[in-house]
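ok so I'm stuck.
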Amino acid sequence: MPESAHNKTELGLYIHLPFCPSRCPYCDFYALPFEAALAGRLIPALIKHLEGIAPSARGRRLDTVYIGGGTPSMLPLAWLGRILKTLRDELGIRPGAEVSLEANPGTLSRRKLDGLLKLGINRLSLGAQSLNPASLKALGRLHGRAETVRAVRQARAAGFANLNLDIIYGLPHQTGSQAVADLDSALELTPDHISLYELTLAPDTVFGRKYAYGKAPLPHPDELARFEQKAFEHLQRAGLGRYEVSNFARPGHECRHNQSTWRGGEYLALGPGAHGHLAGRRWAWISDAALYSKTVQKGLEPLDFEEKLSREDMALERIMLGLRTVEGVNLSDMFGALGVDARKMWPGALKSLQEFGWARISHTHIKPTFLGLGMADGAARLFM
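replied:
not stuck anymore, here's the structure
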């Protein structure tokens, strides 16, 4: 099998829990409204599936666990506890591992936060999306500003020392000044990390069918560019440095799970719709909670797709992901792990990166410029 272009001792796990209080009009992830009966079938299936995939770790313990969705915070503590206990029993979690949980502000209470911390969850990612009432309504969110403020304060009181806020900009009828004010409201809560995303118009969503980029009521691209420049300045002044296109953190609070993924790290997958990457194999499980549960309980693999990656495939992916990060791509490490010399494999693309001012290239590294980070998708297309 080809080796990963990352530390082979590190291993992550992504768990997808698809249940949500409601379906947001912009969401393109596999998610569905909470159904007690279906959730009651899914949790035992997750446990069984976890026991089945544990041998693929070959004795490696987990360095990162990321529980996403969906809204995993809406599940009962007892159910989350069963999953984490099985993780520890079957795989093991290293001391100091990062264990993240996505949460909606309206699904949390001080009691629940205390319980999550006791379960071993040490990083909380709050899907605030906005602190502006009108924007929250436009996004179809069920919580308000007060719930986010309360959730942050209660999380801090419970003892969470690693807290992220998701914020979306480029919303319908949103001006640049409103977006800056929204970001500043989030910064007033002193998060350790902010994920700042431009609204994405996925075709199979309500927003994707309703709106078009650059056309009213969405902001003009020039206004978005002006907001982004101001946003980066405000984030930097608040002590949050940019380390990926959309992610900003205080030193030491970068999301280790995502960093490992961007560096070509390996991770297992659990839950309907979850993706994994291990030993040159990439796969995804069925994006259907009922079918996933039924398949697992039959003792079958709930596989949706899989592919084998060549060394060149993994090197190309490492470059495309690295172009989204401030640290860029370590060409020496990639050559040592995969035996692929990017300078010989993609000379034209590397030359174009420099000519466009999108990256600085040395014998050992590709380092995206500020302009290049903003053009990460275009930069990646140069290699395709």
